[in-house]
Predict the structure of Diaminohydroxyphosphoribosylaminopyrimidine deaminase.
Amino acid sequence: MYEIDTSSPVLVTGATGYVAGWIVKVLLEAGVTVHAAVRDPSQTEKCRHLDEIAASAPGEIKYFKADLLDEGTYAEAMAGCSVVFHTASPFVIDVNDPQSELVDPAKLGTRNVLAQAGETPSVRRVVVTSSCAAIYGDNADIESTASGVFTEDDWNTTSSLTHNPYSYSKTEAEKEAWKIAGSQSQWELVTINPSLVMGPGLNPNATSESFNMIMQMGDGSQKRGTPDAGVGVVDVRDLAEAHVGAAYTPGATGRYIISAHDTTLLEMAATLLPKYGNDYPIPRRLLPKWLIWLVAPMVAPGITRKIVSRNFGYPWRGDSSRSVLELGVTYRPLAETMNDFFQQMVDSGRFGSS
């Protein structure tokens, strides 16, 4: 459906990140020269998994020092690039200062990267990693959608600095991206809006909320049960392919929901039971909503009673048909995603001994 252009380099911001690593892998294996923007290239341990891929791939990786909040910091890294993948943005739920820890890096970082794109004549397309968090704030928002399904036409209007600040930061960042894109005509913007990203990391010791979630399914944190939470899930490897498709598909435009499965936390855990159920305390039942509402503020920082009220007990449904029809994305089974991810945790010793 598309052909990857290897004649010019591309920039990947936050290149050592969970999603970015797989994007870099796809590009290197296609023969692309990747300009990897990282906070500190001298920390070679953080780049080792990318170096190992580059060593046996036809593509080449070059590292550049850059910081989301430093204006002009991406100039050298972006020089000569035809495509910019902007993936760098914090994914944490429990923060002390949402403005400085979430909104500023997400929004100002997007502004800095896209402003630099406008000053770099070689850039023709910018692919921004947004999120379904910019489409909805709470599962209860599904009741106000046009057809009972979240689509690319929906925007998150219910999050704020005090309620779902992570979702608010992703919304503000994507709005900023479209505002900047609309003020120029040199490059095209495509945004990728994944649901919950799961699946193995290229760096097995990475940290993100995704790793925390798979850990909690095996370390005993949820042995008494799991909340009745509807979620969309996508495999990180399929998400990487979607990014590359967004970069090189000639007619790609607008927003793309990237989501493979409308599921629940309990259904996700159930895919692990056949292989791991005898050895690990994987959750097998739902916790009552009233109980979670009662204890959440005391045992789960960042999970307020309002979040419990507006999310647990509601389904999640998203329409990702545009990604299949226009970007050619194929999605792998949920059990494959979950089992590959869990096995990585086992192999890397994250659970200790079972």
Remarks:
- The beta strands are 10-13, 33-38, 60-65, 83-86, 125-129, 188-194, 196-198, 230-235, 254-258, 261-264.
- The chain has 13 helices and ten strands.
- Residues 234 and 259 are 5 Å apart (CA to CA).
